[in-house]
Design goal:
438 residues; alpha+beta; Alpha-Beta Plaits; eight-stranded mixed sheet; four-stranded antiparallel sheet; 25% strand; elongated; binds zinc ion
Length: 438
């Protein structure tokens, strides 16, 4: 190795020092602005929490979002994408690239059991029935946090090199029966024509964990989720004379057992974990009638697209072959609307780790693999993305004690809101600064 002449080394080191100092100044300014926005973010979150709306029906929420973005002086605010989606474009004062930030806005058909003064009392129609509705997955916090980021970045737009697109997405939890929705529909409806396609996208999810902690991992992060429906067709007969027909209940029982042997006996479990679950099974009306058919539904989870394809093929083969062996017939239908693997681009993760550390400090943690799924994965099909988790436990609630997402007792600590705003805002600005023309 040759030593470079000192004359060349010193200006380079000074330039590096200068840019580090600039980044520190920017991070401090973001942290202060996030803190200053806290009361607004808390108010938005409580308002949205008290008025939850189901997927594709987020009309009040999206109107609130659009109104606030316009108030902040956004250059463009587009509404009505994928039913109720909103996209706000904030152009910085300096030339540069494009980055996107995403929040989801939909609630769930869950009856809130919390004692919060702003607990939901809302009912809405869901697949033909009136149901209680609750923000049981924290999307109220995600929407409020992203509005907080909009506030912070609008206040420092002169210093931002490039454009930030704010994506407020409907129906992350899935669309009502017979409808399309979510990230996939936003993309299909031309999201990246409305907002210029970004070169990176960031998003977060509230999750059980100490309040304000940021957890992340590189590569596969959340599972792919496929929904399956298996219909076993037999032949109806009297319960006392099974030989007179084909019993689909016994066949269905064999299929349920055999499906469990796919992850445990057939797949290489050293590559990535996978799960298959039958969650519903219906057949028959009476103790002494062997019914004509049985219907089962279930979910398939894994962390690798190759394993996903292989698993689905094995499920179909197992169900149809077992049915055929008994003279019955099984049809397997797979609905992949739940999305693929949420995959954090390793290069992007490495690139953004200093920004994560700057924003989260000693509250930065490694995330385990999460078997739940996220339709953030839809954006990551085309754009490198980083999706991370924001801890939201109540004070004194330890690991494993917090109510899970989708529980009627799901809780988001408001102390997590500012760390959420700070981290997303820091990621966006740091990314654009790295991309900025020198
Ligand atoms: Zn959820
Ligand atoms: Zn969620």
């Amino acid at each position: 190795m040759r030593l470079r002449p000192l004359a060349l080394l010193v200006p380079a080191a000074l330039a590096l020092l200068g840019s580090t100092a600039r980044a520190e100044d920017t991070n401090a300014a973001i942290a202060a602005a996030a803190q200053a926005a806290e009361s607004k973010v808390v108010a938005w979150r409580r308002d949205i929490h008290e008025h939850p709306e189901l997927g594709n029906r987020e009309t009040r929420t999206s109107a609130l979002v659009a109104k606030e973005l316009k108030k902040l002086g956004f250059d463009e605010v587009h509404t009505g994408i994928a039913h109720t989606g909103v996209v706000g474009i904030l152009k910085g004062g300096k030339p540069g690239g494009v980055v996107a930030l995403r929040a989801d806005m939909d609630a769930l058909p869950v009856e809130e059991k919390s004692d919060l003064p702003f607990a939901s009392k809302v009912h809405m129609e869901y697949n033909g029935a009136q149901v209680p509705v609750m923000h049981a997955c924290g999307h109220d916090a995600h929407t409020a946090i992203l509005l907080g980021v909009a506030t912070v970045l609008a206040g420092m737009r002169d210093q931002i090199p490039g454009t930030v697109s704010f994506v407020f997405q409907p129906a992350e939890e899935g669309a009502p029966e017979g409808e399309e929705g979510g990230a996939r529909l936003m993309i299909k409806e031309g999201l990246w024509a409305t907002a210029k396609q970004p070169t990176a996208i960031f998003g977060l999810h509230t999750w059980p964990g100490p309040a304000g902690t940021i957890s992340y991992r590189s590569g596969p992060t959340m599972a792919a989720a496929d929904t399956m429906k298996i219909v076993v067709k037999g032949k109806q007969t009297h319960g006392s004379q099974p030989w007179g027909g084909v019993d689909p209940i016994v066949v269905a029982a064999q299929i349920v057992q055999a499906l469990q042997l796919i992850p445990s006996r057939q797949l290489d479990i050293t590559k990535a974990p996978s799960v298959v679950t039958i969650g519903s099974i219906h057949g028959g009306v009476r103790h002494n009638i062997i019914p004509d058919s049985v219907e089962m539904t279930g979910t398939v989870r894994n962390f690798d697209e190759g394993i996903r394809k292989d698993m689905l093929a094995r499920i179909t083969r197992t169900a149809t072959s077992i049915a055929a062996a008994s003279g019955a017939e099984a049809t397997v239908t797979i609905d992949s609307y739940g999305g693929g693997v949420t995959y954090n681009d390793p290069a992007l993760v490495t690139q953004m780790e200093p920004a994560l550390r700057a924003a989260a400090g000693d509250k930065l943690l490694n995330s385990p693999l999460i078997m739940a799924s996220e339709d953030f994965s839809e954006y990551q099909q085309d754009i490198p993305g980083l999706f991370f988790f924001l801890g939201g436990n109540k004070e004194g609630v330890g690991p494993g004690q917090a109510a899970a997402n989708h529980s009627p007792l799901y809780f988001v600590n408001e102390a997590a809101l500012v760390p959420g705003v700070r981290t997303l805002a820091t990621l966006a600005v740091d990314y654009l600064q790295q991309k900025a023309p020198k």
